[in-house]
TrEMBL record:
Entry membrane topology: Multi-pass membrane protein
Xref: Pfam families: MscL (PF01741)
Protein name, per record: Large-conductance mechanosensitive channel
Localization: Cell membrane
Main location per the UniProt record: membrane
Organism in which the protein naturally occurs: Rotaria sordida
Length: 151
């Protein structure tokens, strides 16, 4: 029993170290924000985008767009319903999410490129400064030799 409790403590300690690491917390925050964003996009598609399209198509409600197939196997059962209207709404949601993610990734890539350029410029400045220091050291050494030979 004591061994089991020690094992639980080790597991608890390891799990705590894992969960507190920045990557796991960042991932959890990303999932929460992603879920909230998904709900917003679904509401946008279901409540704002598809109703005007339905109006343009003659007052069609996308949620109610279905195909009913008669159940030939079990005659006493209700027909099979294919809800292609909801599928169309899901495709629109997917396209919006893909569009947004494309711009997010493009922005992240741009920031990384800018950071890389800035680091490259800083490295180039360090190299230029170090070259100047080398030249100044050589001049100092030449002046020291010159003063020691004169004196």
């Amino acid at each position: 029993m004591a061994r089991f409790c020690r094992c639980c403590r080790n597991f608890r300690h390891d799990f705590k170290a894992f969960a507190v690491r920045g990557n796991v917390v960042d991932l959890a925050i990303g999932i929460i924000i992603g879920t909230a964003f998904t709900n917003v996009v679904q509401s946008l598609v279901n409540d704002i985008i598809t109703p005007p399209f339905g109006l343009l198509l003659g007052g069609v409600d996308f949620v109610n767009l279905t195909i009913k197939i008669k159940n030939f196997v079990y005659q006493d059962q209700p027909p099979v319903v294919i809800r292609y209207g909801k599928f169309i709404q899901t495709i629109i949601s997917l396209l919006i999410m893909a569009f947004v993610l494309f711009f997010v990734i493009k922005g992240i890539t741009k920031l990384r490129e800018l950071t890389a350029r800035k680091q490259q410029k800083e490295e180039n400045k360090k190299i230029e400064i170090s070259e100047e220091v080398k030249v100044l050291c050589q001049i100092r050494d030449l002046l020291a030799k010159q003063s020691s030979t004169e004196g």
